[in-house]
Design brief:
rod-shaped, two-stranded antiparallel sheet, mainly alpha, about 140 residues
């Protein structure tokens, strides 16, 4: 038998743990201690330089979740004030836009369009549903 170091409840344990005083009981103290250590490790990591950089990236990704581009692919250029996006994505957008409009759309137009879209701030983060779907959800058959 061993005693929990937090609540001092006696509980059965394996004979190889005889004499240990750092055990937690299986009634919740063990899990609480594990959670406390996980929180402590997380705080230490996010206060380090690499953790701060990762948290900055995660926050930026969260703010870009409603945008067209993939996280980490959009950056502001230094020499010209246009956003730089993955070339494959720009080519795909250019092709689809050209097919939809029935004319060839140049790269300058695509970059101007993307810059306007990527600079917009979303009013809300909810998923936009068509009007008919909203009526159907409120008044099920």
């Amino acid at each position: 038998m061993a005693s929990c170091r937090h609540c001092h409840i006696l509980f059965f344990t394996h004979p190889r743990n005889a004499g240990r005083i750092d055990l937690g009981c299986p009634f919740g103290c063990r899990d609480a201690h594990r959670r406390q250590n996980a929180i402590r490790r997380s705080i230490e990591y996010y206060q380090s330089p690499e953790g701060r950089e990762k948290k900055r990236h995660l926050n930026a990704t969260r703010s870009r979740q409603n945008r067209l581009s993939e996280p980490g692919l959009v950056e502001k250029g230094n020499d010209d004030d246009r956003c730089t996006i993955d070339g494959g994505a720009v080519g795909h957008i250019q092709l689809v836009t050209s097919l939809l409009e029935g004319r060839w759309v140049g790269l300058a137009e695509i970059y101007a369009m993307l810059e306007g879209i990527l600079r917009q701030h979303s009013i809300d983060c909810s998923v936009k549903l068509p009007y008919g779907a909203l009526c159907h959800q409120q008044n099920p058959p």
